[in-house]
Amino acid sequence: MASPIEQFQIRPVVPIEALGIDASLTNSGVLMLIAVTGIATFLTLTMRRRALVPGRWQSVAEVTYEFVAGMVRENVGLEGRKYFPFIFSLFMFVLFGNMLGMIPYSFTFTSHIIVTFTMAAVVFLGTTIIGFARHGLGFFSFFLPAGTPWFVAPILIPIEVISYFTRPISLSLRLFANMTAGHTLLKVFAGFVVTMGLAGFVPLVFVIALTGLEFLIAFLQAYVFAILSCIYLSDAIHLH
Amino acid sequence: MPQFDPTTFSPQIVWLIISFAILYWFMARIALPRISDVLDTRQERISGDLERAEELKSQAQALADAHDQAIAEARAQAQEVVREARARMGEEATRRQAEVSERLGSQIAEAEARILRGKEEALSNLRVVVAEVAQSAAERLVGEAPSDELVGGAVDAAMRERTS
Fold this sequence. Notes:
The complex is a heterodimer.
Chain A: E1 12-14, E2 17-18, E3 21-22, E4 25-26, H1 27-46, H2 56-75, H3 84-100, H4 113-135, H5 153-165, H6 167-195, H7 201-238
Antiparallel strand pairs in A: 1-4, 2-3
Helix pairs in contact in A: 1-3, 2-3, 2-7, 3-7, 4-6, 4-7, 6-7
Chain B: H1 9-142, H2 148-163
Helix pairs in contact in B: 1-2
């Protein structure tokens, strides 16, 4: 039987080599394109009629929009409007990546640390650049909040610096670990169903419950990824 | 774990950048403006409708106020008319009463005068008759008629004595 981590295997679909680097379209890349196509199709079809009184599907699209717009408004404020398309794309990309991974025999690109880390790095670099662009060298005051007594500064500054630089790591690890662990666990228990014969219904029930939980986690991790990006953005704009 | 195989890194990063760039472009340029357009239009429509409803409501309120005022005015006017009519009728009644009592008074006075005149007439007729009776009676008794003056004086004296 296949190992529980076999589902994370990257397989090239179209081998491409450009500028001396391997840029092959893999199963991971295919799922990314499917996610993008899915999001675009979803938002295009549901908003096709642009009805004043929304139908059921149009409501779904509008609720999604309002959900992310509210998240940005509450966490970043009015200055966040400019970055709303980015946060929205990020949320939808992770959400669709997680949800598409729930389809049997498909692939979960958010279970790959390099994917989540690249996204987290973009968020980290982006917010840092925004911070310096808005505040110049004043952005360094982020590491020493106003009103801090001078004698705690030697302790506080390293802590703040370390916590700032671990942000992309925690952000990417959280999503990667959640997706990897969840899918591995599902696969392990699904394996028990087969090997345990008649008693296999016990792990089967467990797998069913776990599948429900996985859907919840799929949504929740997309939400967490988006909201943490909002908070980092807010820090860059407002400095604590 | 396949996740930590560095040879898988570059193809995934490349396709992540490609697909996310496409997604971002599509969201920022097409999908999100479309949704926000619909939401804005709806918001405008709703606030416009609310405004119009507010306006219509105030108009209706104004009309109702005008109506109330008109009714109050009409009522006041009606009361005024009634009061006036009552006053006029009272006046008319007293005037007519005075007129009637005056006429009655004059009629009474006239009647009294007529009665008095009748009485006087009767009395003077009586005097003449009495005088004639007395004259003829005296003529029978004495065979000679006394003079008119004598009989008249006697009758007058007798009548004065009776009536007083």
